[in-house]
Amino acid sequence: MTLKCSSLQSFFNQEAVGQMNGMLHDLKLKTVCAEATCPNLGECFSSGTATFMILGKHCTLNCRFCDVSFGHMEEMDELEPEHLAQATKQMGLKHVVIISVARDDLPDGGASQFVKCIEVVRKYNPDTTVEVLIPDFQGDHASLYIVIAAKPEIINHNIETVERISPKIRHRATYERSLEVLAYIKEQDPEIFTKTGIMLGLGETQEEVAQAMDDCLNANVDFFTIGQYLQPSPKHFKLHEYVSMHQFGVYRRMGMEKGFKFVASSPQVRSSYKAHEALADGGASK
């Protein structure tokens, strides 16, 4: 199991980062913030929040925007759920986010491992809320329902970008199927919050972002995140622009006015950034 941070890096957080990395080392967990080239580091550690990435560090997809490595799949770690629960307890997490690489090589896409992690985390941390960020499981309803039946508080699946750009940056995953996944979750369990997000700076227009919001609302999505795309390397999809803070504010207001329960919109936002705030604010408006 690896750990991906979702936080704003600052000099004053380095001690907290060092302490948390020491604890994770003792539990034989790895931090892979650098592997995902996440721009956020430290704030989550210093505030006792974290996002765990399960099922290895290699992905069966090779998306043009993502810096997670594409390669040989690792054996599933049977002790991973237990280690994740121990880390959650030692870190005193009130809200834990569990994500994974895509594992299309597994019969259920890794859905059963998500469920084991949810169950063991709750066994040792009964007051901790759980959010999962899932792949599309190739649209397989049986795999999706395995996760839905475990009743995490939030199920997140990202559409990543607007419809026009989606085929240019996503490998095998599609805009339409992502919307179908989000709609299916809500159809099966309306009490679970659903969440999705996009990156800006890929060449999208304001009209396309507005349409993406409408598409997600039509799928009954509750929470929407908007962040800045950062090109991981010259071989990845080319960065079109750095979007202004003003425009991020425009999109946040637009999303709230359209009807999302919570919108996080700023350059440093990633899928799990301030995830607990979304649950707290969105849950109050439910």
Which descriptors would you attach to this protein?
alpha/beta; two-stranded parallel sheet; 39% helix; 9-stranded mixed β-sheet; 286 residues; single chain
How would you describe this structure to a colleague?
Helices cover 39% and strands 16% of the residues. It starts with a strand and ends with a helix. By secondary structure, it is an alpha/beta fold. Residues 5-12 and 31-38 have low confidence and may be disordered.
Topology of this structure?
Elements: E1 2-4, H1 14-26, E2 30-31, H2 33-36, H3 43-46, E3 50-54, E4 58-59, E5 69-70, H4 80-91, E6 95-100, H5 111-124, E7 129-133, H6 141-149, E8 154-156, H7 166-169, H8 175-188, E9 193-200, H9 206-218, E10 223-228, H10 245-258, E11 262-265, H11 275-284
Parallel strand pairs: 1-2, 3-6, 4-5, 6-7, 7-8, 8-9, 9-10, 10-11
Antiparallel strand pairs: 1-3
Helix pairs in contact: 4-5, 5-6, 6-8, 9-10
